[in-house]
Each structure stands twice: as structure tokens, then as C-alpha cells.
Amino acid sequence: MNAQTLRLSAFRAAWKTDLPASIVVFLVALPLSMGIAIASGVPMAHAASAGLITAIIGGVVTGALSGCTLQVSGPAAGLAVMVALFVQEHGFQTLGVIVLLAGLVQLAAGLLRLGQVFRAVSPSLIQGMLAGIGILIFASQFHVMVDDMPPGTGKEFGGIINLWTLPQAVWKGISETVHRPAALIGLLTIVTMFLWNRLTPQKLKLLPAPLLGVAVGTSCAAILQADLKYVPVPDNLLEALRWPGGSDLRALSYRAIWLAGLSLAFVASAESLLTATAVDSMQRHAPRTRYDRELAAQGVGNILCGLAGVLPMTGVIVRSSANVLAGARTRLSTILHGVWMLVFITLLPGVLSLIPVASLAAVLVYTGVKLMNPKAMRTLWRTDRAEAGIYAATLGTVVVVDLLTGIAVGIALALARLLCSFSHLEVAVEEEKGSVRTTIRLKGAATFIRLPKLAAALERVRPDAHVHVNFHELTYIDHACLDLLINWEQQHKAAGGELVIDWDRLRAVFQQHAWGERRIEAA
């Protein structure tokens, strides 16, 4: 069998698995893309087109270039709060410039092979950020779910205001006739998703809960002819594309716009690459992620989204996991889901105008609760209290202040913890009574910062002592401290003592540091 025949056979096999998988991903992405656009503060008249066009670019363009074969990119709930902040501060017209900048940064980082650097983010920071975003999305979209405006929109401490006024939203949904129909449709959507996820057999779960919830909510609204807010849809969604003009490009002269672009690039890259890692852990048949290529592909996608004036994209775990579970084998499923999205909005845009805003908001309320993920906090608390503290501080700052400040606090705490761990060293000198044997136990990281402490402990040792150095609790030792031990060994032997070092254990500490291994072998 020649190579061409093998490729044709593989292509046919891919169609058999990837075609149905692409339909599943399309059904998952359709309601989420519109709902995330609404949660991102996009003006209602542009929300449907902004979300769906980003999903199309994420599927067709980023899917074709992606370094993670089965990852699906599009508008993400994890970026919704950040985008809403940019829209409030700089206006929707400027969002395209910010997204364009973020895409250029991602593309440059990918070409410079910095993919692994963007992955070097503390998991507790990411989990805390996502949990904080979940709380903010839940608080704002709960108000939208009852056809009301979130009272904290555009205000300082807006997230706290939205949380504090949740009882008022509940009361409006119960008592006021203007808000009651929307509240009932939203509640019906949430109950449908919850029951579908909890009670449905695994084989039927290929039908995504968000789509089913929106379908049930839309059907009930149509049957009851309820007085609700519906998704406004232009006659031609592609006419909503807005290319940056001269006035938009002049925004590049403002430092705040560059800061926004860099911040968006950092968050979107971290989320995409962490999602890619999660996708790798879920499947065994597709190639492992090429992180630099994935980062560059995300950059190209966001450049196009910025030029089109729509939402930014990132790798999305909900769509990616649906893709894997639906049996996708190649990138064809991701590309096709974008094609189906394009076909749908071209041929059937009127269907979107039948969807109640309350039903899409309910999908985001449900998504926000899932993003909170209290299990992550419990796991961190049991395994590492310091990481749990970073998680809590990031979450709290995101909710109380804003997302960018929360990320900055999380990064600062993670760096402080790293500095602390690399500067913490315990040195215990234990002398056995009636014997010349002395044991020195090292715990932590022996770096040049703690060299004076190690030197002081060695100076306290008797000249004739038979010294054993215990490295079992040592996590790291640098060149300066290693030199100190080797030089002190020579001086101690000259004074009539002896030093015994467990070189095998010390070599294990240096197993990832070639210069350390060479230094040990020379000793």
C-alpha cells in the first residue's frame, strides 16, 4: 500500500469520527458564544455577531494552525470579565485594537519559542482567577437573567455591588410582572441543564446541556408568547464586521491600551496552554501539544479577531472536552465546527432572534457556578497552604477590585513564595555524646543567600569531629554553597577531622542541573 493510499484511508477514517464530533462541538459553541459576548459587555446589537464570528475564526483559522490537534478555540468565559473591563474603560470601538495587540504579542512569543514560558504560571493563580471570574459572571448575569441591568456595571467595586444586590434580583423575579417571565425562563434553562447533566445516561450526553437548556427555554418562551428581551440579530451577521479605522489606531498612542493588550495576551495564552495540557491528559491517540505552534496559532486568530473588531479567543476547555469525548481524532472536527457556524449564521440568522436573552444569561450563570470550583480550594488547602493563600488572595482581589489587579496580586505572591522557598534553609548540628561523630542536617534550599548561615554552622563544629552531612531534606544547592562544603572539607581534614558526604544523594538533588553533576564528579 503506497503513501497516497494510506493518506486517503486516514482521511476517510477521520471523516467518520470527526464529522459527528464537529456537530457536537458546534451545538456546544453556538449558545456559549452568544452568551459570553453578552457577559463581555458587548453592546446587545453586536453581541451575537461578535461571539459567533470569533468562534468561526477560532474554528477555521486557529483550528487549522493549532499545535494542539483537538483543542477548540473561541470566546471564553475566562476572558469575559477582562473584556467587559476594557469595553467599559475604552469603549467597544477600541476593543479590536486591544485584541489585535494581544494577537501580535502571542504570535511573536510563539515565533520566539516562548510557549513554555507562558505555561510557567502558578496553578493556584489560574484557579483563583477563574473562580473570581466565575463569581463575577454569576453575579452580573443573574441580573441579566431577570431582564434587568446589573447595577454594578461601569462602577467602582461593581462586582461587589452585583453580589450585594442579588436578593433584589431574586425579589424582582418573584414579585414584579416585568421581570417574572424572564426569571421563569432562566430558571427553566438552569434546571434543564442541571437535570440533563445529572440524570442522563453517558451516551446521550453528547447532546450538550447548554444547547438543550436554551432550546427548552426558547420553546417555552415561544409557546407562552412571553414578554421578554430577545437576542437582536442583524439581517446579515457578516455586515457586523468592523475594521479598525484611523481613529481606532490613534489609540495606540495611549499606554493604557498597550497595557490592556499585554494583559490580555498573558491571560489568554496561559488559559490556552493550560487547556491544551488538559486536552493532552484526556486523550492518547492525537499527537502531544506543540506549545510554541499553539501560541502562534492563537496569535494569528486574535490578530484576525482584532481586525474584525470582535471578541478575543482562547482555547476553551468546555468545547475541547466535548470534542474529545465525541470521538474526534484530528483537527478536522475543530475546523468543521467553524464551518457549520458560518453556514448557520449565513443561512439561518433569523433563528437566533428567537432566543431569549434570559436563557443565554442562565447558561452563563450555570457556567459561573462551575468556574468557582470549590474542590480546587479544598485540594490546595490539604496539599499546600501557601498555594491556597495565593488562590484566596487572587480570588478576593479579582472580585473586590478588578481582574488585572487580582492577576498582579497573584503573580506577586507566587514570586514572593518562590523567593521564600529558595532562600529558606534550616541547618541543624547534632553532636553525639561520648563520640566524635557530628551530623549536619540541611533542610530547604542552600543558596548563596544562606551561605553565611551554613558557614557559621560549619565553624561551630569541633576540629576533630567525624562529620556526616544529611541531604535528605535538601531541595536545592547552588554553586556557592557546594564550593563552601568542598573547601571546608579540605580544611577540616587538615585539622584532623573527617567529612562524609552522601554524594549519591547530592547527585539526586542535582539531577536536573548539569553543572552540578560535573562539580560533584570532579569532587
Walk me through the structure.
By secondary structure, the chain is an alpha/beta fold. 68% of the residues lie in helices and 7% in strands. It is built from 24 helices and six strands. The strands form two sheets. A four-stranded mixed β-sheet has the order 3-4-5-6. Strand 3 and strand 4 (437-446) form a beta hairpin. Helix 6 runs antiparallel to helix 17. The model is unreliable at 512-523 (pLDDT under 50).
Write down the Rg.
28 Å
- Uncertain parts: 512-523
Q: Name the strands of the widest sheet in spatial order.
A: 3-4-5-6
Percent strand equals 5-15%
Order of helices and strands: HHEHHHHHHHHHHHEHHHHHHHEEHEHEHH
Category by helix and strand content: alpha/beta
Euclidean distance between termini CA atoms: 58 Å
Largest sheet: 4 strands, mixed
List keywords for this structure.
alpha/beta; disordered C terminus; elongated; two-stranded antiparallel sheet; 523 residues; 7% strand
Give a short summary of the structure:
The chain has 523 residues and is of the alpha/beta class. It has helices at residues 3-39, 44-65, 77-90, 92-111, 115-119, 123-145, 158-164, 166-175, 180-199, 209-224, 246-249, 255-282, 291-308, 317-325, 332-347, 349-352, 357-372, 374-383, 385-400, 403-423, 451-459, 479-494, 503-509, 514-522, and strands at 73-74, 314-315, 425-431, 437-446, 466-477, 498-501.
